[in-house]
Design goal:
Elements (H helix, E strand, L loop, with lengths): L4 E4 L13 E4 L17 H11 L12 E4 L2 H6 L3 E4 L2 E5 H7 L8 E4 L2 E2 L11 E5 L3 E2 L10 E6 L5 E5 L9 E2 L9 E4 L6 E4 H9 L8 E6 L5
Parallel strand pairs: 3-7, 9-13, 12-15
Antiparallel strand pairs: 1-14, 1-15, 2-3, 4-5, 5-8, 6-8, 10-11, 13-14
Length: about 220
């Protein structure tokens, strides 16, 4: 897996972050109710989620103020990767692995997490994944299953991918092998990329997040 790149298909779907058993308090708002149906977040949270999709790092104040676990069995079923307050979160061995790697301008941010009484601290550390890495290595002319979407107001073109799980559908330049091991390509809408080094380390740690991966094709010479 070294020297390889993968695309993550279902950070935004599957069982990741569904029925987490958690509730959230956003800054300047009351606690969300203890229920599986997630209320519509405030407008400023939507804006922060949009920044995540662009690979822009978030300030602490853009994340929820705190969270609590009201259904411990549901939270246990989430494993090492879940979502809290609309943002992806990790714990356990997956968090230990990510803390070893370069995440660009992003980082893991501790979640102020409590038990259902909203007072007792949760007994294990949990972190939000602050996606703060953006690369411009995507090669649409060498990729399959992509479609031009729009010209961004900042002057670059944005494409979408059809979601195929076949290997080698998406192409990137060798520059994708440098820098952050977890990133978003500015020219490819909502897709998250992961380095082969990180994939290998997760496998060696016997971590199996509820995600699907496909290998990305690397085209050209390193600049």
């Amino acid at each position: 897996m070294m020297g390889e790149v993968y695309v993550v298909h279902n950070w935004r779907g599957g069982n990741v972050g569904v029925k987490t058993g958690s509730r959230t308090k956003y800054f300047n708002h009351e606690w969300n109710p203890p229920q599986f149906e997630v209320p519509t977040p405030p407008n400023e949270v939507f804006e922060a989620i949009h920044k995540v999709k662009q690979g822009a790092p978030l300030d602490r104040a853009e994340l929820p103020e705190a969270a609590a676990i009201w259904n411990e069995k549901a939270f246990a079923r989430q494993g090492d990767l879940t979502a809290i307050g609309g943002f992806y979160a990790v714990r356990g061995r997956m968090a230990e692995v990510l803390l070893q790697f370069d995440l660009g301008e992003g980082s893991l941010i501790p979640v102020p997490l409590f038990k259902d009484d909203l007072i007792t601290p949760w007994p294990e550390p949990v972190w939000w994944v602050n996606f703060g890495a953006n690369k411009e290595c995507f090669l649409p002319e060498e990729s399959k299953g992509v479609r031009f979407l729009m010209e961004h107001r900042d002057g670059y073109k944005v494409w979408t991918f059809n979601g195929s799980t076949e290997d080698d559908m998406i192409a990137v330049s060798p520059n994708a092998l440098t820098g952050s091991v977890l990133w978003i390509e500015r020219g490819l809408l909502r897709e998250i990329f992961i380095s082969g080094d990180l994939m290998r380390t997760l496998a060696e740690a016997k971590i199996k997040p509820k995600l699907r991966f496909s290998r990305v094709r690397i085209v050209g010479d390193h600049q």
